[in-house]
Design goal:
Number of domains of chain A: 1
Shape of chain A: globular
Strand content of chain B: under 5%
Oligomer: heterodimer
Shape of chain B: globular
CATH superfamily of chain A: NADH Oxidase
Number of strands of chain B: 0
Number of helices of chain B: 5
Distance between the termini of chain B: 25 Å
Helix content of chain B: over 70%
Number of helices of chain A: 6
Largest sheet of chain A: 4 strands, antiparallel
Number of domains of chain B: 1
Helix content of chain A: 25-40%
Strand order of the largest sheet of chain A: 1-2-4-3
CATH topology of chain A: NADH Oxidase
Distance between the termini of chain A: 38 Å
Structural class of chain A: alpha+beta
Bound molecules: flavin mononucleotide
Protein backbone atom coordinates (compact mmCIF):
# COMPACT_ATOMS: atom_id res chain seq x y z
CA UNK A 1 0.00 0.00 0.00
CA UNK A 2 1.28 3.49 -0.79
CA UNK A 3 2.43 5.66 2.08
CA UNK A 4 -0.31 8.21 1.33
CA UNK A 5 -3.03 5.55 1.50
CA UNK A 6 -1.61 4.10 4.68
CA UNK A 7 -1.57 7.60 6.16
CA UNK A 8 -5.25 8.07 5.29
CA UNK A 9 -6.25 4.74 6.78
CA UNK A 10 -4.29 4.99 10.00
CA UNK A 11 -5.22 8.56 11.01
CA UNK A 12 -7.57 8.54 14.01
CA UNK A 13 -8.93 11.40 16.06
CA UNK A 14 -6.88 11.71 19.26
CA UNK A 15 -8.64 13.13 22.31
CA UNK A 16 -5.88 12.61 24.88
CA UNK A 17 -2.58 14.36 24.23
CA UNK A 18 0.68 14.57 26.19
CA UNK A 19 2.21 17.91 27.18
CA UNK A 20 4.99 17.53 24.59
CA UNK A 21 5.45 20.65 22.43
CA UNK A 22 5.03 20.82 18.66
CA UNK A 23 7.85 22.36 16.62
CA UNK A 24 7.21 25.64 14.81
CA UNK A 25 8.31 24.07 11.48
CA UNK A 26 5.77 21.28 11.95
CA UNK A 27 2.97 23.80 12.47
CA UNK A 28 4.08 25.66 9.35
CA UNK A 29 4.18 22.43 7.34
CA UNK A 30 0.59 21.71 8.38
CA UNK A 31 -0.52 25.22 7.40
CA UNK A 32 1.25 24.89 4.07
CA UNK A 33 -0.55 21.61 3.44
CA UNK A 34 -3.86 23.44 4.03
CA UNK A 35 -2.89 25.96 1.41
CA UNK A 36 -2.89 23.08 -1.12
CA UNK A 37 -6.32 21.78 -0.14
CA UNK A 38 -8.91 22.17 -2.92
CA UNK A 39 -11.14 25.24 -2.66
CA UNK A 40 -14.43 25.93 -4.47
CA UNK A 41 -13.79 28.38 -7.33
CA UNK A 42 -10.23 28.59 -5.96
CA UNK A 43 -11.57 31.48 -3.84
CA UNK A 44 -9.69 30.53 -0.65
CA UNK A 45 -12.12 32.00 1.88
CA UNK A 46 -10.46 30.14 4.80
CA UNK A 47 -8.18 31.90 7.24
CA UNK A 48 -6.19 30.04 9.91
CA UNK A 49 -5.52 31.29 13.42
CA UNK A 50 -2.80 29.49 15.36
CA UNK A 51 -3.07 29.54 19.13
CA UNK A 52 -0.09 28.39 21.19
CA UNK A 53 -0.45 30.71 24.21
CA UNK A 54 -1.31 28.53 27.21
CA UNK A 55 -3.81 30.82 28.89
CA UNK A 56 -5.67 31.52 25.63
CA UNK A 57 -5.89 27.78 24.99
CA UNK A 58 -7.19 27.22 28.51
CA UNK A 59 -9.93 29.80 28.04
CA UNK A 60 -10.90 28.39 24.65
CA UNK A 61 -11.20 24.92 26.15
CA UNK A 62 -13.57 26.28 28.78
CA UNK A 63 -16.05 27.41 26.11
CA UNK A 64 -15.58 24.31 23.97
CA UNK A 65 -17.44 21.40 25.60
CA UNK A 66 -16.41 19.16 22.67
CA UNK A 67 -12.69 19.82 23.13
CA UNK A 68 -11.47 16.94 25.26
CA UNK A 69 -7.82 17.37 24.28
CA UNK A 70 -5.33 19.59 26.07
CA UNK A 71 -3.48 20.27 22.83
CA UNK A 72 -0.32 22.39 22.74
CA UNK A 73 -1.44 23.91 19.42
CA UNK A 74 -4.89 24.89 18.20
CA UNK A 75 -5.52 25.89 14.61
CA UNK A 76 -8.85 27.63 14.17
CA UNK A 77 -10.26 27.52 10.64
CA UNK A 78 -12.22 30.71 9.99
CA UNK A 79 -14.27 31.87 7.03
CA UNK A 80 -13.27 35.35 5.90
CA UNK A 81 -16.60 36.90 4.88
CA UNK A 82 -14.88 39.77 3.06
CA UNK A 83 -13.61 37.25 0.51
CA UNK A 84 -17.11 35.76 0.25
CA UNK A 85 -18.63 39.22 -0.35
CA UNK A 86 -15.94 40.23 -2.87
CA UNK A 87 -16.83 37.26 -5.03
CA UNK A 88 -20.59 37.68 -4.53
CA UNK A 89 -20.86 34.17 -3.17
CA UNK A 90 -24.19 33.56 -1.38
CA UNK A 91 -23.59 33.12 2.37
CA UNK A 92 -25.28 29.69 2.29
CA UNK A 93 -23.12 28.40 -0.58
CA UNK A 94 -22.12 24.87 0.44
CA UNK A 95 -18.64 25.38 -1.01
CA UNK A 96 -17.83 27.37 2.12
CA UNK A 97 -18.46 24.38 4.37
CA UNK A 98 -16.77 22.00 1.97
CA UNK A 99 -13.68 24.23 1.94
CA UNK A 100 -13.51 23.94 5.73
CA UNK A 101 -13.70 20.16 5.36
CA UNK A 102 -10.97 19.88 2.74
CA UNK A 103 -8.67 22.09 4.80
CA UNK A 104 -9.41 20.20 8.01
CA UNK A 105 -8.74 16.77 6.56
CA UNK A 106 -5.62 17.97 4.74
CA UNK A 107 -4.21 19.40 7.98
CA UNK A 108 -5.03 16.27 9.97
CA UNK A 109 -3.39 14.05 7.35
CA UNK A 110 -0.35 16.34 7.27
CA UNK A 111 -0.12 16.18 11.07
CA UNK A 112 -0.35 12.38 10.97
CA UNK A 113 2.35 12.21 8.28
CA UNK A 114 4.59 14.27 10.60
CA UNK A 115 3.99 11.80 13.45
CA UNK A 116 1.63 14.17 15.27
CA UNK A 117 -1.84 13.58 16.66
CA UNK A 118 -4.86 15.70 15.77
CA UNK A 119 -8.57 16.10 16.39
CA UNK A 120 -11.26 18.36 14.95
CA UNK A 121 -13.67 20.23 17.23
CA UNK A 122 -16.88 21.99 16.22
CA UNK A 123 -18.67 21.76 19.58
CA UNK A 124 -17.98 25.18 21.05
CA UNK A 125 -19.75 28.50 21.38
CA UNK A 126 -18.85 30.62 18.36
CA UNK A 127 -19.78 33.80 20.22
CA UNK A 128 -17.59 32.96 23.22
CA UNK A 129 -14.66 32.06 20.93
CA UNK A 130 -15.18 35.34 19.09
CA UNK A 131 -14.90 37.26 22.38
CA UNK A 132 -11.87 35.35 23.69
CA UNK A 133 -9.89 35.74 20.45
CA UNK A 134 -11.15 39.26 19.75
CA UNK A 135 -11.96 38.08 16.21
CA UNK A 136 -12.54 40.70 13.53
CA UNK A 137 -16.25 40.93 12.64
CA UNK A 138 -15.69 39.49 9.15
CA UNK A 139 -14.16 36.26 10.50
CA UNK A 140 -16.37 33.41 11.69
CA UNK A 141 -14.78 30.62 13.77
CA UNK A 142 -15.67 27.39 11.96
CA UNK A 143 -13.57 24.52 13.27
CA UNK A 144 -10.65 23.91 15.60
CA UNK A 145 -7.95 21.43 14.71
CA UNK A 146 -6.14 20.35 17.87
CA UNK A 147 -2.54 19.34 17.24
CA UNK A 148 -0.17 17.59 19.62
CA UNK A 149 1.29 14.24 20.57
CA UNK A 150 -0.84 11.28 21.52
CA UNK A 151 -0.72 10.50 25.25
CA UNK A 152 0.68 7.07 26.00
CA UNK A 153 -2.38 6.36 28.10
CA UNK A 154 -4.84 7.49 25.38
CA UNK A 155 -8.01 5.42 25.21
CA UNK A 156 -9.36 4.21 21.85
CA UNK A 157 -11.69 6.64 20.05
CA UNK A 158 -15.46 6.62 19.84
CA UNK A 159 -16.92 3.24 18.97
CA UNK A 160 -18.53 2.97 15.53
CA UNK A 161 -22.34 2.99 15.42
CA UNK A 162 -22.07 -0.10 13.24
CA UNK A 163 -19.26 -1.92 11.47
CA UNK A 164 -18.73 -0.12 8.19
CA UNK A 165 -16.76 -0.77 5.01
CA UNK A 166 -16.43 1.37 1.90
CA UNK A 167 -18.86 -1.02 0.19
CA UNK A 168 -21.62 -0.03 2.63
CA UNK A 169 -21.12 3.58 1.59
CA UNK A 170 -20.97 3.08 -2.17
CA UNK A 171 -23.45 2.56 -4.97
CA UNK A 172 -22.25 1.77 -8.50
CA UNK A 173 -23.93 3.33 -11.54
CA UNK A 174 -27.61 4.22 -12.02
CA UNK A 175 -30.24 3.21 -9.52
CA UNK A 176 -32.63 0.61 -10.91
CA UNK A 177 -35.95 2.03 -12.10
CA UNK B 1 -17.83 25.17 62.40
CA UNK B 2 -16.01 26.17 59.20
CA UNK B 3 -18.07 25.47 56.07
CA UNK B 4 -16.55 22.80 53.84
CA UNK B 5 -15.66 24.89 50.77
CA UNK B 6 -14.66 22.63 47.88
CA UNK B 7 -14.89 25.07 44.94
CA UNK B 8 -13.09 28.35 44.37
CA UNK B 9 -14.76 31.26 42.59
CA UNK B 10 -12.56 30.88 39.46
CA UNK B 11 -13.39 27.21 39.31
CA UNK B 12 -17.12 27.85 39.69
CA UNK B 13 -16.97 30.33 36.79
CA UNK B 14 -15.20 27.68 34.68
CA UNK B 15 -18.03 25.30 35.38
CA UNK B 16 -20.57 27.98 34.48
CA UNK B 17 -18.76 28.49 31.15
CA UNK B 18 -19.10 24.79 30.40
CA UNK B 19 -22.79 24.72 31.35
CA UNK B 20 -23.73 27.84 29.40
CA UNK B 21 -21.81 26.94 26.24
CA UNK B 22 -23.17 23.38 26.43
CA UNK B 23 -26.71 24.79 26.52
CA UNK B 24 -26.02 26.84 23.41
CA UNK B 25 -24.34 24.16 21.31
CA UNK B 26 -27.09 21.69 22.20
CA UNK B 27 -29.43 23.82 20.05
CA UNK B 28 -27.46 22.69 16.97
CA UNK B 29 -26.48 19.16 17.95
CA UNK B 30 -28.19 15.76 18.12
CA UNK B 31 -30.30 15.14 21.23
CA UNK B 32 -28.06 12.27 22.38
CA UNK B 33 -25.21 14.77 22.87
CA UNK B 34 -27.16 16.18 25.84
CA UNK B 35 -26.09 13.40 28.25
CA UNK B 36 -22.52 13.71 26.94
CA UNK B 37 -22.38 17.39 27.90
CA UNK B 38 -23.90 16.77 31.34
CA UNK B 39 -21.37 14.01 31.94
CA UNK B 40 -18.53 16.29 30.82
CA UNK B 41 -19.74 18.81 33.40
CA UNK B 42 -19.96 16.02 36.00
CA UNK B 43 -16.40 14.96 35.30
CA UNK B 44 -15.15 18.57 35.35
CA UNK B 45 -16.87 19.34 38.67
CA UNK B 46 -15.62 16.07 40.16
CA UNK B 47 -12.04 16.96 39.14
CA UNK B 48 -12.35 20.46 40.57
CA UNK B 49 -13.61 19.41 44.00
CA UNK B 50 -12.00 16.00 44.48
CA UNK B 51 -8.86 17.22 46.28
CA UNK B 52 -10.87 19.24 48.83
CA UNK B 53 -13.66 16.74 49.33
CA UNK B 54 -14.28 14.56 52.36
CA UNK B 55 -13.91 10.81 52.61
CA UNK B 56 -17.68 10.55 52.07
CA UNK B 57 -17.39 11.76 48.50
CA UNK B 58 -13.84 11.09 47.40
CA UNK B 59 -14.28 7.58 46.01
CA UNK B 60 -17.40 8.62 44.13
CA UNK B 61 -15.60 11.63 42.62
CA UNK B 62 -12.52 9.60 41.69
CA UNK B 63 -14.75 7.04 39.96
CA UNK B 64 -16.44 9.79 37.94
CA UNK B 65 -13.06 11.10 36.79
CA UNK B 66 -11.97 7.65 35.64
CA UNK B 67 -15.23 6.29 34.31
CA UNK B 68 -16.74 9.19 32.40
CA UNK B 69 -14.10 9.58 29.64
CA UNK B 70 -14.54 5.87 28.91
CA UNK B 71 -18.31 6.23 28.82
CA UNK B 72 -18.09 8.98 26.19
CA UNK B 73 -16.63 6.51 23.74
CA UNK B 74 -19.55 4.13 24.30
CA UNK B 75 -22.17 6.60 23.13
CA UNK B 76 -22.99 4.52 20.05
CA UNK B 77 -23.76 1.45 22.21
CA UNK B 78 -27.04 2.72 23.65
CA UNK B 79 -27.52 -0.23 25.99
CA UNK B 80 -24.03 -0.04 27.48
CA UNK B 81 -24.28 3.75 27.71
CA UNK B 82 -27.62 3.57 29.54
CA UNK B 83 -26.22 0.92 31.88
CA UNK B 84 -23.24 3.22 32.58
CA UNK B 85 -25.62 6.08 33.38
CA UNK B 86 -27.64 3.83 35.69
CA UNK B 87 -24.43 2.86 37.50
CA UNK B 88 -23.61 6.55 37.99
CA UNK B 89 -27.14 7.15 39.31
CA UNK B 90 -26.70 4.35 41.86
CA UNK B 91 -23.30 5.74 42.86
CA UNK B 92 -24.63 9.28 43.34
CA UNK B 93 -27.56 7.97 45.40
CA UNK B 94 -25.12 6.07 47.64
CA UNK B 95 -23.03 9.21 47.98
CA UNK B 96 -26.15 11.20 48.90
CA UNK B 97 -26.93 8.67 51.61
CA UNK B 98 -23.41 8.98 53.04
CA UNK B 99 -24.02 12.72 53.33
CA UNK B 100 -27.50 12.30 54.79
CA UNK B 101 -28.71 11.83 58.33
CA UNK B 102 -30.57 8.72 57.14
CA UNK B 103 -27.38 6.73 56.80
CA UNK B 104 -26.31 7.60 60.34
CA UNK B 105 -29.68 6.63 61.77
CA UNK B 106 -29.60 3.10 60.36
C1 LIG C 1 -17.54 18.06 11.13
C2 LIG C 1 -16.89 17.31 12.26
C3 LIG C 1 -17.01 17.79 13.55
C4 LIG C 1 -16.42 17.11 14.63
N1 LIG C 1 -16.49 17.66 15.88
C5 LIG C 1 -15.90 17.02 16.92
C6 LIG C 1 -15.91 17.61 18.22
O1 LIG C 1 -16.44 18.70 18.46
N2 LIG C 1 -15.29 16.92 19.21
C7 LIG C 1 -14.67 15.72 19.00
O2 LIG C 1 -14.13 15.15 19.94
N3 LIG C 1 -14.63 15.14 17.77
C8 LIG C 1 -15.22 15.77 16.72
N4 LIG C 1 -15.17 15.21 15.45
C9 LIG C 1 -14.45 13.93 15.25
C10 LIG C 1 -15.38 12.72 14.97
O3 LIG C 1 -16.08 12.35 16.13
C11 LIG C 1 -14.50 11.56 14.45
O4 LIG C 1 -13.95 11.92 13.22
C12 LIG C 1 -15.29 10.26 14.32
O5 LIG C 1 -15.69 9.79 15.57
C13 LIG C 1 -14.48 9.17 13.62
O6 LIG C 1 -13.27 8.97 14.24
P1 LIG C 1 -11.89 8.88 13.39
O7 LIG C 1 -11.77 10.18 12.62
O8 LIG C 1 -10.82 8.69 14.40
O9 LIG C 1 -12.05 7.72 12.47
C14 LIG C 1 -15.71 15.90 14.38
C15 LIG C 1 -15.59 15.44 13.07
C16 LIG C 1 -16.14 16.14 12.02
C17 LIG C 1 -15.94 15.63 10.61
Amino acid sequence: MSEALRNIKTRRVVREMSGEAVEREQIEAILEAARWAPSGGNLRPNRYIVIEDEETRRLLRLVAPGMFQRAPVLILICTNWQVVAQHHLPAQDRALLIDIGTAAQTMMLAAHALGLASGPVTSYSKEAVRVILNLPAHYSPEMFICIGHKAETARPGMRAWQPITWRDLTHWERFAT
Amino acid sequence: MQPNWVLKEDEAIELLALLITSARIQMDEPAHYGPLRLLTATERLSSLIEARSSQKSRGFLQDNIERIPEMHMLMSDVEAYTEGLDALCRAVAECLLRHSALENES
